[in-house]
Design brief:
Strand content: 15-25%
Protein name: tRNA uridine(34) hydroxylase
Order of helices and strands: EHEEHHEEEHEHEHHEHEHEEEEEH
InterPro entries: Rhodanese-like_dom (IPR001763), Rhodanese-like_dom_sf (IPR036873), TrhO (IPR020936), TRHO_N (IPR040503)
Pfam family, one: Rhodanese
Oligomer: single chain
Radius of gyration: 21 Å
GO biological process, one term: tRNA modification
Organism: Pseudochrobactrum asaccharolyticum
Number of domains: 3
Length: 307
């Protein structure tokens, strides 16, 4: 029997979108009608999201989004990949203050943003000894993969990134500042923020890591490890193939194959990241939840065989 594949679309668009609230209901209805799951965020500054469904369903959604008057004049950053199983549990269309939360007032990528660098030109930029390469993602994302030589700001959330920049302004003086993130959206705001501090030589990877892994041959890569994605695939590698990293169901942190060898790893119950932060009572609760998950899977398998 052929394994079903789902089309995954990651997209964002900064735009003047004053009537964004009016699109929550029609987008929800369209996704429900087409069996699409994932998350779309709508705000006055634009749209952001990752969704999955059939190829035809995703095509219908993208056509609808591209026809929205406030968005159709902008370049929607859009990347496709595939998943062997549906990578989301439900569909959410949410209204937000920001489509990516930085928490700094007045940051507008439509007014000022770093220079875009295409994946094929990225290696030359980051190989330059005068370039400082900054990973704008969070620490758990950095831990499973990043570009060779990239700085880890050790942030837990994107809200912490502006303070890290303020604390390291002296290190950035006189340098080319190159930044990257998963799909490009965080760098839109990160580079706008850094430019607002008076730095001019600011760059970011067009389409983010995902576009680089899609376009760059593995033999020419500067990427090391896998790229964390915010769905049940957990990570992807070159060619956007599904990776080997799994989620710890207790703390939602990624666990590498090496991490699964730890004495503190137990599927569905604990890992290195959370073992010492959880109590025995917590682990007992997670163990019961894991037991129920396995029972549900077993019942589902038996039902499928019966069909």
């Amino acid at each position: 029997m052929c394994e079903a594949h789902f089309t995954v679309a990651a997209l964002y668009c900064f735009a003047r979108f004053p009537d964004f609230e009016a699109y929550q209901a029609p987008l929800t209805e369209l996704c429900d009608q087409n069996g699409i799951k994932g998350t779309l965020l709508l705000a006055a500054e634009g749209l952001n999201g990752t969704v999955a469904g059939t190829q035809s369903g995703i095509a219908a959604l993208i056509a609808f989004i591209e026809a929205i008057p406030a968005l159709r004049e902008q370049n929607i950053e859009l990347k496709y990949s595939t998943a062997s199983q549906m990578p989301f549990n439900r569909m959410k269309v949410r209204l937000k203050k920001e489509i990516v939360t930085m928490g700094v007032e007045g940051i507008d990528p439509l007014q000022s943003v770093g220079a875009y660098v295409q994946p094929e030109d990225w290696n030359a930029l980051i190989d330059d000894e005068n370039t400082i390469l900054i990973d704008t993602r969070n620490d758990y994302e950095y831990a499973i993969g990043t570009f060779k030589g990239a700085i880890d700001p050790k942030t837990k959330t994107f809200r912490e990134f502006p303070q890290w920049v303020e604390d390291h302004r002296g290190d950035l003086e006189g340098k080319k500042i190159a930044m990257f993130c998963t799909g490009g959206i965080r760098c839109e705001k990160a580079t706008a923020f850094v430019k607002g501090l008076g730095f001019d030589d600011v760059y970011h990877l067009k389409g983010g890591i995902l576009k680089y892994l899609e376009d760059m041959p593995a033999e020419d890569t500067r990427w090391e490890g896998e790229c964390f994605v915010f769905d049940e695939r957990v990570s992807v590698g070159h060619g956007l193939v599904e990776g080997d990293v799994q989620l710890c169901r207790a703390c939602r942190n990624p666990v590498t194959p090496e991490g699964k060898l730890s004495q503190f790893y137990e599927e569905g119950i604990s890992c290195d990241s959370c073992y010492h932060e959880r109590s025995d009572a917590d682990r007992a609760r997670y163990a019961e939840r894991q037991r129920q998950v396995l029972l549900a899977k077993e019942r589902g398998a038996k039902q499928h065989i019966g069909d």
